[in-house]
C-alpha cells in the first residue's frame, strides 16, 4: 500500500510533503528549511556506516538461520533512517530504541556483538546505556517513548537547556507503535511540558502483517499538530535528509523549543523478524518498487557521479564490512553462556535478602539433580 | 586431514520442533562457503533458506527432500578440511542443548526396553498461541485441597467467562466441585461436568471424526502455485452468459464428419478453438508478467486443467494455435487421456501460456479461476443447461452456459480482458464467426 490510499492524503488533493535531499537516482536537491553542507569525508563516512550496518544485519540473520541466535529483527531497508538520525546525535543526547535500531547503536559506538547477547539469550542487553547514550533495546511496543519523554523532562529540570551541556532525548518507534496508548501519553507529556525530545518514527509501512492504513487515516507526521508540536515527514531512505531533519529537531529540543515528531518514510525490506513470513501478507510488487529507492544505491550513485568516492574506496568499505561480519560471527560463537545464578544478579543493584534467598533455593534445586539418572 | 562437521536443524522460529526439507541447493561433493544457501526448509511458520555455517566440501546430505525432521537432528555433513583445528569453541547453542539433553535423558539401550513416555512439552509458537492441551506442566506443589462449596445456597466461585460457558453448555455450577484457586470452578471443571462419565473411552472416537491427510505431491504443488499466483498477480474476473445452442449443434455436426470419426468432439473443442481465435485478436491474453517487461508470446501452448486422481494438473497442447480443428481435437483427447492416467510428463505440464478450466464437468455454472502461474489469462467454462432465454425477440428454451475469464491486471486492462471474453462468447453463440475471424 501507499499513503495515497489514506483519506487525509488524497482528500486534500496534495501529496504529503516529503523532505528529500537526495533523490532515489542519487541527484542532490536542495530544501530551503534543511540546508546541509557535508565534507567528502563525512559523505564517505555515511556510506561506510550504511554498508557496514547492512552487512552486520545480514550476518545476524544468517546466524539466526544457523541456530546461533533465537531471533533477529532485520533493519534491511531502514539503514538511512537510522544512520542519518544516528549521526545527527550529540554527546549529551540519549537514545531510546526499539529492538531494530542496530544502525543507531552503531552510531553510538555500541559494538555489534553487544547487540547479539540479547538475541542469543545470554544477557539482557550487553552495554552500559549511560556510557553510550543509548538505552537498552525495548521489546514492548512504544513504551520507550514514555521513557524518552520522562528522561527529557529530567534534562529540562537539570537546567541545562540552551547551554553547551544540553542534551535531548530521542525515541525510536515504528508506525505500529503509533496506535499504542503509551505513545499518545508520551506525546501529551512532551507537548505540555515542552520537553526536549525528538520522536523518530520509522514508518516502514508494516506493523508485522498490518499495513499502514490499519494504523492511521492521515499521514502520521500530521498527528503532531493535534498535540501542538511540529511534525515533519522525511524520505527515510535518504540518509542526508534524515541527518538534516534530525539535526534541526535535536538542536531545537536542546535550545528549549520543545518536541518534534519526525516520520521517516521508509520500508521494511525483510521480514518483521526471522520468525515472520511476509509473503503471506504483502505483494512482491510492493517490495520491488521500494528496491528502486534503496538507501545505499542512491548515495553510492551520488558519490561516484560526483567523484567523491572511487572504486578503491568502495572496495575498501566492502572489505571492511566483510571483516566486521566475520569478527561478529566469531565473537557470537564465543559468547559465554551465563550460569544459572546469573538470573539473580541484576535484579537489584545492591544485595537483596529475598533475591538472595531465592538464589539459594534455586541452587539447591539444581543440586538435587546431581547424580540423578532420571526416573 | 579431513574433519567432518554436521549441521543440526536449528529452531528458526521461536519454538518450532520440526521442519520439512523442501529442497537441497547443494549435493555431496559441492564446495560450500559460510552463509551459502544450502537448503530450503518449511516450518509451521514459513519456508526459509538455511545458510551454511561452515566452509568446506559437502560430504553427505543426511536427510532426503520431503522428509520432516526434528530440530536438533543433523541434516548435512561438511568436510571442513584440515585448515583450522579445534572447531568452534564451546560448540553451538544447539550442540550444547543436545549435550545437556544427553546428560539428563536416559536413552533406552535396546528397542524392547522403552522408558515410560512422558507427555512431550510442546513449545509455544510466538504469535500463534498455545495449542489446546499443549502445555502439560508438572505441578510444582500439590494443589490445595478443593474447598467445599458453600452449602448454604451462596453463589459458587467462578469467573464471569466460566459462568457464561456453564450457562451456554447448560451446566449447573452449584453441582460442581471447583479445582481452581480458592476452590473456584474452572473451564475444565465445567467441561468435565458437561461430559458424561464415559468420557475417556469416547476420546478416541472423537478423533476418528476427522482425518488428517498429509499435504504433499500434487496437492502441495497446487497449493503453492495457487497461493503464489493469487498473491502476486492482481486477478480480475469477468463473467458472460452465452447461448451456445448453435455450438452444441455444431458439435453434433462435427461428430458426423469422417475427419472426426476417430476423435472425441466435445463442446470443449469449440471453446478451445474460440479462445485460440480470440487470443489471435488480443495477443495480450497470451502474455506473461516478467517484473520489468510484459512478455507477449507468439505461440500458444493451451493448458487444460484436469482433475485426476493425483489432483489437479494442467497439461498443455503445444503450439495449439497452429493446429487444424481435427488435430486440436486429437491433441485435447490425447492430453486428457494421459493426464487422467497419471502419465503426463513434465514437458506436458510446463510451458503453458493460457488455460481453460472446464468447471462445467462438475455441474456448476461458473467460478473465479486462479491464474496458472506465469500466465495472464484463464477461461472457466461452466455447465451447459437449458435455460429460458430471449431468442430472436421471443422467450425460448436455449442451451446456455456461463464463461468466466480471470486475467492478470498487470498485463491486461479491462478493455482487453473484456474483448477476449466477448469474442469467445460471440464465437460460441455463432460458431460461423470462427471462420470469419480465423
TrEMBL record, chain A:
This protein's record includes keyword Oxidoreductase: yes
SUPFAM superfamilies tied to this protein: Thiamin diphosphate-binding fold (THDP-binding) (SSF52518)
Residues of the Dehydrogenase E1 component domain: 50-326
Cofactor: thiamine diphosphate
Keywords recorded for this protein, A-Z: Oxidoreductase, Pyruvate, Thiamine pyrophosphate
Pfam families, per the entry: E1_dh (PF00676)
InterPro entries in the cross-refs: Alpha-ketoacid_DH_E1_comp (IPR050771), DH_E1 (IPR001017), PdhA/BkdA (IPR017596), THDP-binding (IPR029061)
Gene3D superfamilies: 3.40.50.970
Protein name: Pyruvate dehydrogenase (Acetyl-transferring) E1 component subunit alpha
Organism of provenance: Actinomadura parmotrematis
Gene: pdhA
TrEMBL record, chain B:
Organism ancestry: Bacteria, Bacillati, Actinomycetota, Actinomycetes, Streptosporangiales
Protein species of origin: Actinomadura parmotrematis
Record-linked CDD domains: lipoyl_domain
Domain of life: Bacteria
Cross-referenced InterPro entries: 2-oxoA_DH_lipoyl-BS (IPR003016), 2-oxoacid_DH_actylTfrase (IPR001078), 2-oxoacid_DH_E2_comp (IPR050743), Biotin_lipoyl (IPR000089), CAT-like_dom_sf (IPR023213), E3-bd_dom_sf (IPR036625), PSBD (IPR004167), Single_hybrid_motif (IPR011053)
Keywords annotated in UniProt: Acyltransferase, Lipoyl, Transferase
EC number: 2.3.1.-
Biased composition (Low complexity): 193-207
Domain called Lipoyl-binding: residue spans: 4-79
Region: Disordered, residue numbers: 133-161, 174-212
Record-given protein name: Dihydrolipoamide acetyltransferase component of pyruvate dehydrogenase complex
Keyword Cell membrane: no
Family: Belongs to the 2-oxoacid dehydrogenase family.
PANTHER family membership: DIHYDROLIPOAMIDE ACETYLTRANSFERASE COMPONENT OF PYRUVATE DEHYDROGENASE COMPLEX, LIPOAMIDE ACYLTRANSFERASE COMPONENT OF BRANCHED-CHAIN ALPHA-KETO ACID DEHYDROGENASE COMPLEX, MITOCHONDRIAL
Cofactor: (R)-lipoate
Domain Peripheral subunit-binding (PSBD) as annotated: residue spans: 157-194
Enzyme class at the top of the EC tree: transferase
Pfam families: 2-oxoacid_dh (PF00198), Biotin_lipoyl (PF00364), E3_binding (PF02817)
Amino acid at each position: 500500500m501507499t499513503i495515497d490510499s489514506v483519506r487525509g492524503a488524497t482528500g486534500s488533493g496534495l501529496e504529503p510533503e516529503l523532505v528529500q535531499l537526495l533523490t532515489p537516482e542519487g541527484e542532490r536537491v536542495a530544501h530551503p528549511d534543511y540546508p546541509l553542507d557535508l565534507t567528502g569525508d563525512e559523505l564517505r563516512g555515511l556510506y561506510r556506516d550504511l554498508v557496514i550496518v547492512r552487512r552486520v544485519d545480514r550476518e545476524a540473520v544468517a546466524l539466526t538461520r544457523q541456530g546461533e541466535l533465537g531471533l533477529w529483527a532485520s533493519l534491511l531497508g531502514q539503514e538511512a533512517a537510522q544512520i542519518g538520525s544516528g549521526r545527527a546525535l550529540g554527546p549529551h543526547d540519549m537514545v531510546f530504541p526499539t529492538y531494530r535500531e542496530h544502525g543507531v547503536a552503531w552510531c553510538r559506538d555500541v559494538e555489534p556483538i553487544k547487540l547479539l547477547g540479547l538475541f542469543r539469550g545470554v544477557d539482557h542487553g550487553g552495554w552500559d546505556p549511560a556510557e553510550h547514550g543509548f538505552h537498552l533495546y525495548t521489546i514492548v511496543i512504544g513504551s520507550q517513548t514514555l521513557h524518552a519523554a520522562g528522561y527529557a523532562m529530567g534534562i529540562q529540570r537539570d537546567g541545562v537547556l540552551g547551554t553547551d551541556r544540553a542534551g535531548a532525548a530521542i525515541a525510536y518507534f515504528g508506525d505500529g507503535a503509533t496506535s499504542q496508548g503509551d505513545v499518545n501519553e508520551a506525546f501529551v507529556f512532551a507537548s505540555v511540558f515542552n520537553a526536549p525530545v525528538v520522536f523518530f518514527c520509522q514508518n516502514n509501512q508494516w506493523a508485522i502483517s498490518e499495513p499502514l492504513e490499519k494504523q492511521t487515516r492521515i499521514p502520521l507526521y500530521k498527528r503532531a499538530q493535534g498535540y501542538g508540536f511540529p511534525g515533519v515527514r522525511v524520505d527515510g531512505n535518504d540518509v542526508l535528509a534524515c541527518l538534516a531533519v534530525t539535526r534541526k529537531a535535536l538542536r531545537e529540543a536542546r535550545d528549549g523549543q520543545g518536541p518534534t515528531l519526525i516520520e521517516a518514510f521508509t520500508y521494511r525490506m525483510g521480514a518483521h523478524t526471522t520468525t515472520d513470513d511476509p509473503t503471506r501478507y504483502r505483494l512482491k510488487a510492493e517490495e520491488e518498487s521500494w528496491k528502486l529507492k534503496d538507501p545505499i544505491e542512491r548515495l553510492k550513485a551520488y558519490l561516484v557521479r560526483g567523484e567523491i568516492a572511487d572504486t578503491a574506496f568502495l572496495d575498501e568499505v566492502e572489505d571492511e564490512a566483510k571483516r566486521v561480519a566475520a569478527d561478529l560471527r566469531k565473537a557470537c560463537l564465543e559468547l559465554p553462556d551465563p550460569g544459572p545464578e546469573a538470573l539473580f544478579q541484576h535484579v537489584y543493584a545492591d544485595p537483596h535478602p529475598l533475591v538472595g534467598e531465592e538464589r539459594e533455593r534455586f541452587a539447591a534445586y539444581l543440586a538435587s539433580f546431581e547424580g540423578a539418572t532420571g526416573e | 586431514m579431513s574433519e567432518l562437521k554436521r549441521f543440526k536443524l536449528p529452531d528458526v522460529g521461536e519454538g518450532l520442533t520440526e521442519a520439512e526439507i523442501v529442497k537441497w541447493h547443494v549435493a555431496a561433493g559441492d564446495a560450500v562457503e559460510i552463509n551459502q544457501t544450502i537448503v530450503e526448509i518449511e516450518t509451521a511458520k514459513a519456508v526459509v533458506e538455511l545458510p551454511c555455517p561452515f566452509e568446506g566440501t559437502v560430504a553427505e546430505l543426511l536427510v532426503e527432500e520431503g522428509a520432516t525432521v526434528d530440530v536438533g537432528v543433523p541434516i548435512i555433513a561438511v568436510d571442513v578440511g584440515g585448515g583450522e583445528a579445534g572447531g568452534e569453541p564451546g560448540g553451538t547453542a544447539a550442540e550444547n542443548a543436545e549435550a545437556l539433553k544427553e546428560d539428563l535423558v536416559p536413552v533406552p539401550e535396546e528397542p524392547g526396553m522403552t522408558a515410560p513416555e512422558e507427555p512431550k512439552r510442546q513449545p509455544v509458537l510466538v504469535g500463534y498461541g498455545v495449542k489446546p492441551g499443549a502445555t502439560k506442566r508438572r505441578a510444582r506443589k500439590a494443589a490445595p485441597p478443593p474447598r467445599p462449596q458453600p452449602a448454604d445456597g451462596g453463589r459458587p466461585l467462578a469467573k464471569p467467562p466460566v459462568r457464561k460457558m456453564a450457562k451456554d453448555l447448560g451446566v449447573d455450577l452449584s453441582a460442581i466441585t471447583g479445582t481452581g484457586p480458592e476452590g473456584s470452578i474452572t473451564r475444565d471443571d465445567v467441561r468435565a461436568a458437561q461430559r458424561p462419565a464415559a468420557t475417556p473411552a469416547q476420546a478416541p472416537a472423537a478423533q476418528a471424526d476427522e482425518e488428517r491427510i498429509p499435504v504433499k505431491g500434487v496437492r502441495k504443488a497446487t497449493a503453492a502455485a495457487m497461493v503464489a499466483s493469487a498473491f502476486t498477480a492482481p486477478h480480475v474476473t469477468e463473467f458472460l452468459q452465452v447461448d451456445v445452442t448453435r455450438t452444441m449443434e455444431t458439435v453434433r455436426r462435427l461428430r458426423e464428419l469422417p475427419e472426426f470419426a476417430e476423435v472425441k468432439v466435445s463442446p470443449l473443442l469449440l471453446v478451445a478453438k474460440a479462445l485460440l481465435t480470440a487470443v489471435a485478436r488480443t495477443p495480450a491474453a497470451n502474455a506473461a508478467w516478467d517484473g520489468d517487461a510484459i512478455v507477449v508470446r507468439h505461440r500458444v501452448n493451451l493448458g487444460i486443467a484436469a482433475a485426476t486422481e493425483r489432483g489437479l494438473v494442467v497439461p498443455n497442447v503445444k503450439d495449439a494455435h497452429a493446429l487444424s480443428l481435427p488435430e486440436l481435437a486429437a491433441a485435447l483427447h490425447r492430453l486428457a487421456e494421459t493426464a487422467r492416467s497419471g502419465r503426463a510428463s513434465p514437458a506436458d505440464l510446463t510451458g503453458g501460456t493460457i488455460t481453460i478450466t472446464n468447471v462445467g464437468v462438475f455441474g456448476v455454472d461458473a467460478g473465479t479461476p486462479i491464474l496458472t502461474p506465469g500466465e495472464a489469462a484463464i477461461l472457466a467454462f461452466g455447465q451447459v443447461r437449458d435455460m429460458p432465454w430471449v431468442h430472436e425477440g421471443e422467450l425460448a428454451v436455449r442451451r446456455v452456459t456461463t464463461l468466466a475469464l480471470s486475467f492478470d491486471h498487470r498485463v491486461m486492462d479491462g478493455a482487453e480482458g473484456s474483448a477476449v471474453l466477448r469474442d469467445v462468447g460471440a464465437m460460441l453463440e455463432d460458431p460461423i464467426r470462427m471462420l470469419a475471424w480465423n
